[in-house]
Automatic annotation (TrEMBL):
One of its GO terms (molecular function) is DNA binding. GO terms for biological process: DNA transposition. Residues 18-138 form the Transposase IS200-like domain. It comes from Streptomyces corynorhini. SUPFAM superfamilies: Transposase IS200-like (SSF143422). It holds the Pfam family Y1_Tnp. This is IS200/IS605 family transposase.
Amino acid sequence: MSPRWEPNANIRTGRHVAYNLHAHLVFVTKYRKGVFDDAMLQRCEEIMREVCAGFETELREFNGEADHVHLLVHYPPKIALSKLINSLKGVSSRYLRAEYTGRINRIGLGSVFWSRSYFAGSCGGAPLSIIRQYIEGQQRPV
């Protein structure tokens, strides 16, 4: 009897491709200013989930601290990661600056929300459970 093929929930398929691409992204606020509180992090996650959905990308994990956020994204090979990152940072910056103007102005961020730099790491070699544990372990401000 041949072994039964078990479907893997992480492997997604397209017309001519099967893939399992994950990236760990970290975005830092300008000058590492501690702007995020729990409510603002929650809103940032909502915005980033919407952006990811528009790119046919799944935001698997999200967490952060006062001055940065961590994302674990599952994305198709047709997506240029730099374009996704540009959109995530641009859209979230516009919405957060509009919705939290008073808080952002008090902290002194001005018209720029995110630092120009970011971290993007491939998660191909690490088990996703380890990456998830790491992101979940990032502390949200109290």
